[in-house]
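=== RUN LOG ===
request id: a7f3
mode: sequence -> structure
chains: 1
length: 381
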Amino acid sequence: MRVGVVGGGVVGCSTAYYLSQLSPSVSVTLFEGCGIACHSSGKAGGFLARKWSDETDLAPLCHASYELHKELAERYPGAITTHPVETYRVDTTEEKGDGRSWALDWINRHHVTGVKRLDGPPHTCKTDPARLCQHLHKMSGCKTVTQYVTHITLNSDSVTVHSSGAANEKEETDIKDGGIWKFDKVVIAMGPWTIPFLRREFPSCGIPDIPPQTRAHSIVFKLQEGDEIGTHKDLPDPACLFLYHTGLDGKVVDPELYPCDISTVYVCGEVDYEPLPPTPDLISPDRAACTRLKHQVEFTLPDLGRAAVVREQACYLPDSPDHLPLIGEVSGGDGRVFVGTGHTFWGILNGPGTGKCLAELVLAGECTTCDVTKYNPARFS
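=== RESULT ===
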């Protein structure tokens, strides 16, 4: 069987990987015009939570995918990681508080007004999303085409994929000019570009148009020598902080702060709804939003005020009309075109689970990893 996978993010790389694991004889070709994990999968914080969607329709997928993250880390130690983390809600204010001490003795007690533990190991951990994608891509052994897919057409005996262009001609690629590729089945995992693509190429899919998708900003800090990310004084695990910061104008914002290592901190927040550019390489952050984000978190961790900002970035969160993922056959695709998208901010968590489900559907026509009935794209048709 020949399978084409469109998209080199966590869903696309996971699909290619599990196709190769479940059926080594399958020939897989992955298309990515901008590089592996070049968009949200390479800009995410990598926070994973097993139970945080238990009261929603996402619960089966979250549980299954969380376990797959653990399995992958055990199978590829060092290359793929799932570091256990504590999680806390921290309330801060720009006005000075009473300076009381908190359980997290490394945060700025003069601006913190409340601390509450949310969860911890074994139910929360953190991975490196870019390394996860790159290693799954590598271990899949798939052929890679550094091209954008422009059209997909159905033929009696194949699915034809048309590709052209590349965001970075310096990247290794199997083709320099536009190409026409024939497959038995195709998986579309283009993140926030997926639904516009499906509506254009498969108008009978029935998926409604969606409003502008969320653009989220993030910053990566590198602390100065001697500054370190603290840990809970009674626990060895680093902490991910979910902040609720009240400004002088009374407005509350909710940035998130994740330690990457002892001297690197990832912070995300400040969302807006700018139109989605045609390709990932055209996305640029709003510098004012990044400045506001930096200002907000400095009231929690004083060391960030003198830390170097090594990266300011933005990415779009893939959504769907009903805010549930799309996993399964595309209506109008004759049982040969599949889709995986719409995970919003749980994309890294649910990437491996989605990829394995798609691989099972492509190879066997049924999914055993978890029940994906509620994610079936046919719900719109």
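=== NOTES ===
Confidence is low (pLDDT under 50) at residues 167-177, 231-236.
Residues 154 and 173 are 25 Å apart (CA to CA).
=== END ===
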